[in-house]
Amino acid sequence: MDRTCILIIEDEPEIADLIAVHLRKAGFDAATASTGEAGLAEAADQMPALIILDLMLPGIDGLEVCRKLKYDASTRALPIIMVTARGEEADIVTGLELGADDYMVKPFSPRELTARVRAVLRRDDEPESCAADGDVVEGITIDDDRHEVRVNGATVELTLTEFQILRYLASRPGFVRTRDQIIQAAHGPRVIMSTRTIDVHITALRKKLVPWGDSIETVRGVGYRIEESVLPRSS
């Protein structure tokens, strides 16, 4: 991976050039692609440090590009900042669910985008502080290496956000996490979204973790925690 190269996938040449100029002033190399197909090829070929991805692209759109990058084991770890003219929460949540690290809504400040690039790369270099691995609740196993959760030995399909939420709650059993803390743990400190979105993810998690879903407790007026009393005793 080239730790200095940023790949810009953007179909508007003026915007792509503007971003590239500011990134180069900040000490990065910048490569551009104007279609989703070209962006996928460039990402696989160059393995950049980070990708700035427009959502509204000709051919394969940005969401599908993100999906393909995160599905491919060789490009899965590439950080992605989405840039979109669509500022609705549903679009943002979809992008983050697919694995994007951050997003910006057009029009935006190139200087702020450069700052966010630095922040994402810095965060990407930091060791995980809230990882939970192994049997964290009776019957529930988190395998961080495989990015997999098993309930009573059977693999459960979780979205990226659901997986991150479960890891975060399981890192401190019995400890209450606010909705804002959960959002930051799942998506980073710069993401702003409705705290009710977390309630939707928790509801989905509980259904998928049956019969142990009730181990995720609601603390009214505060947030959520994983019940400490059902954790297996260490020998």
- The total count of strands amounts to 12
Structural class label: alpha/beta
Low-confidence stretches: 127-133, 230-235
**Number of domains as seen in the coordinates:** 2
Tell me, what is the CATH class of the largest domain? Alpha Beta
Radius of gyration: 19 Å
| CATH structural fold name of the largest domain | Rossmann fold
Strand line-up in the sheet with most strands: 2-1-3-4-5
Distance between the first and last residues' Cα = 42 Å
The average pLDDT score comes to 83
Largest sheet: 5 strands, parallel
What sort of overall outline do the alpha carbons produce when their principal axes are compared? elongated
Strand % is 15-25%
Q: Helix tally?
A: 8
Look at the structure and name the CATH superfamily of the largest domain: Response regulator
Helix share, percent: 25-40%
Corresponding CATH architecture of the largest domain: 3-Layer(aba) Sandwich
| Series of H and E elements | EHEHEHEHEHEEEEHEHHEE
Secondary structure elements and pairings:
Elements (H helix, E strand, L loop, with lengths): L1 E8 L3 H13 L3 E5 L2 H11 L1 E7 L7 H10 L8 E5 L4 H9 L4 E4 L4 H16 L8 E4 L2 E4 L4 E4 L2 E3 L3 H11 L6 E2 H9 L8 H13 L7 E4 L3 E4 L9
Parallel strand pairs: 1-2, 1-3, 3-4, 4-5
Antiparallel strand pairs: 6-7, 7-8, 8-9, 10-12, 11-12
Helix pairs in contact: 1-5, 2-3, 6-7, 6-8
